[in-house]
User: Which sequence fits this backbone?
């Protein structure tokens, strides 16, 4: 998904109310090439725009999703996320 498509998709979710009760956001690494021209809209710009003024932590390039190494997250499970520069973890409660 191109950065402009990601921006549209995230803003659509935001406008539909999907972000209203967030506690945090985890976004896995993208397999798509990023935009290398600094004057063009890139993936980080898309994330910053979509989550601007939403007071929750947003972690990106997380080891989840479709690119190895990845951990599996159970859909609907409650989770606790710890993040620090020297290490991080996710615990899920089923």
Assistant:
């Amino acid at each position: 998904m191109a950065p402009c498509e990601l921006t549209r998709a995230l803003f659509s979710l935001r406008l539909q109310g999907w972000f209203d009760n967030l506690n945090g956001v985890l976004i896995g690494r993208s397999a798509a090439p990023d935009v290398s021209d600094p004057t063009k809209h890139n993936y980080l710009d898309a994330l910053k725009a979509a989550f601007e003024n939403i007071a929750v932590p947003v972690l990106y390039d997380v080891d989840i999703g479709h690119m190895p190494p990845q951990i599996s997250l159970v859909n609907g499970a409650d989770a606790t996320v710890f993040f620090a520069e020297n290490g991080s973890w996710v615990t899920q409660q089923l």
Helices lie at 3-15, 43-51. The CA atoms of residues 81 and 90 lie 5 Å apart. DSSP finds two helices and four strands in the chain.
